[in-house]
Amino acid sequence: MRILIIEDEYNLADIIANRLKKEKFTVDISTNDKDGLYNALTNIYNLIILDIMLPYIDGFQILKEIRDNDISAKVIMLTAKSELEDKLNGFQYGADDYLTKPFHIEELVARVNVQLRKDSDQKIKDYIEAYDIRLNIKTSTLSCILTTESIDVGCKEFLILEYLIQNQNIIISKDQIYDQVWGIDNNSESNNLEAYLSFIRKLCSTL
Q1: Shortest CA distance to 71 belongs to which of 40, 98, 96, 95?
Q2: Theoretical Cys-Cys bridge with 79: which of 6, 44, 52, 60, CB 3.0 to 4.6 Å?
Q3: Rounded to whole angstroms, how far apart are CA atoms 143 and 206?
Q4: Which of 55, 56, 48, 134 is closest to 93 using CA atoms?
Q5: Is it true that domain 127-206 has CATH number 1.10.10.10?
Q6: DSSP string, 89-157
Q7: pLDDT, tens digit, 9 for 90 and up, residues 152-179
Q8: pTM for this predicted structure
Q9: Mean predicted lDDT score pLDDT of the chain
Q10: Contacting residues for 164 by C-beta, under 8 A, at least 6 apart
Q11: Residue ranges of the domains in the chain?
Q12: What is the bridge-based pairing of β-strands 26-30 and 74-79?
């Protein structure tokens, strides 16, 4: 599971990130609103922790932009304000939860786990499909629906296939695939992806 923290107080963001990493989450931090919005719109995150009080683009605007672009990631809003109106605005724009500063880090972790558990509960199938191929999430196998032949796939190939199948009706750039599979701070060379895609094509052709 991948989490994005959009919080301009770096020390707080770092504390949250380090605690969430102990839960085996992959965590990225954006300490300004523009980078935060850009990273959120890559659609590679399962959950976003979003501060409301940001310097230029406030959290409500970022949340609205996220939902306007059909990003379905869970969003937990953080704010120093406790007014009911702020909470209602957050939920109106599509927030899933709301936590007022100061808060106990363990409460935030618990809320993160609850939101991601809800998301997981909705994904009942062990596989995803596109056309005549099926990718089994539990066994990391790729199979042909028509012939039932199957083959094991490696970690990176699996992540690429999973992302492509989940977004099969969307035009995806190479940068988006890099961000999803290698992370937003990846240093992978451009020919790496071409090699993986070529291998995936060969895998599919053997089924």
Answers
A1: 40
A2: 52
A3: 10
A4: 48
A5: yes
A6: HHHHHT-SEEEESS--HHHHHHHHHHHHHHHHHT---SEEEETTEEEETTTTEEEETTT--EEE--HHH
A7: 998 888 889 988 988 888 888 888 888 7
A8: 0.63
A9: 86
A10: 130, 172, 177
A11: 2-121, 127-206
A12: unpaired
Sign of the alpha-carbon torsion through 105, 107, 108, 112: positive
In tens, the pLDDT along 100-145 reads 888 999 999 999 999 988 765 555 467 889 989 999 877 889 999 9
Q: What's the token pair of residue 10?
A: 């770096």
Residue type, 26: T
Structure tokens at 71: 């990003």
Tokens describing residue 183: 């992370």
Statement: 2-121 belongs to CATH 3.30.479.10: no
Q: Are 133 and 144 in contact (CB under 8 A)?
A: yes
Residue reference for tokens 């085996």? 24
pLDDT in tens, 12-55: 999 999 999 998 888 999 999 999 999 999 888 999 999 998 98
CA distance 194 to 196: 5
